[in-house]
Amino acid sequence: MEETIAGTSDVTSPVGSDSPVSAAGQIPQQRGESLLDTAVRYAEERHWDVVPGTWMESEDGVQRCSCGELQCERPGAHPARPDWATQATGSATVARRLWSKQSKASILLPTGRTFDAIDVPETAGFLALARMERMELTLGPVTCTPDRRMQFFVLPGATLKVPDLVRKLGWPPASLDLVALGEGGYVAAPPTRFGSKGAAQWACRPTAANRWLPDAEELISPLAYACGREGRR
């Protein structure tokens, strides 16, 4: 069951958010289970806390984020209320009840609990993935979002470690487009849609093999290198 969460396969190169899967192993369209079923599986099988976010609504034939902002930057894919973190649950039963109330709600995974995430630009993320494969590093799950960002799941505590790790590699932290998401942050989990932009996808899907997450220190070198390279372009 672990190998089929969210119904996507691993990827090795970037594509547009709604591009179909190709022979090159690019990100496929999100298919399969409902948001409710997927949220339940994240809680039940991965023991991740989940929380329902905003959703898309139709008004006079126009799709808008439920938050009411006409120019919402992450339509249908952000917290629905200020105290969203208090709603997070690791219970499959509670998750089923929450999404039964609003089946279109996005799935948000709070960081700083069972995992942190290192957030980088998509181009740097795929470059780093290729390098990690050559280095034979063990990866955790990795998401790729329609706003062209990637999040690498790592053990909690990354927010405290990453700045110093980046400095030791020779970069001022502020010079890289690399951010560690910890307490108070979140990841929009597949198959959450960002309005008409497309859906969040798994670049490396959750499997039994990556249940044990890497430490930020194990991934920071290829990620920082890729971000530094992209920053010089």
Structure report:
The structure is a single chain. By secondary structure, the protein is of the alpha+beta class. 27% of the residues lie in helices and 17% in strands. It has 5 helices and 10 strands; from the N terminus they run H-E-E-E-H-E-E-H-E-E-H-E-E-E-H. The strands form 3 sheets. It has a 5-stranded antiparallel sheet with strand order 8-5-7-6-10. Strands 1-4-9 form a 3-stranded antiparallel sheet, with helices on one face. Strand 2 and strand 3 form a beta hairpin. It is globular and about 50 Å long. The model is unreliable at 6-30 (pLDDT under 50).
Key words describing this protein structure:
233 residues, 10 strands, alpha+beta, 5 helices, single chain
Q: What coarse outline follows from CA principal-axis ratios?
A: globular
Radius of gyration, CA atoms, in whole angstroms: 17 Å
| Beta-strand segment tally | 10
Helical run tally: 5
Question: How would you sum up this structure in a few lines?
Answer:
By secondary structure, the protein is α+β, with helices and mostly antiparallel strands. The protein has five helices and ten strands.
Fold topology:
Blueprint: H1 35-45, E1 51-52, E2 56-59, E3 62-65, H2 92-101, E4 107-110, E5 116-121, H3 122-135, E6 142-145, E7 149-154, H4 158-168, E8 179-181, E9 186-188, E10 201-204, H5 216-231
Antiparallel strand pairs: 1-4, 2-3, 4-9, 5-7, 5-8, 6-7, 6-10
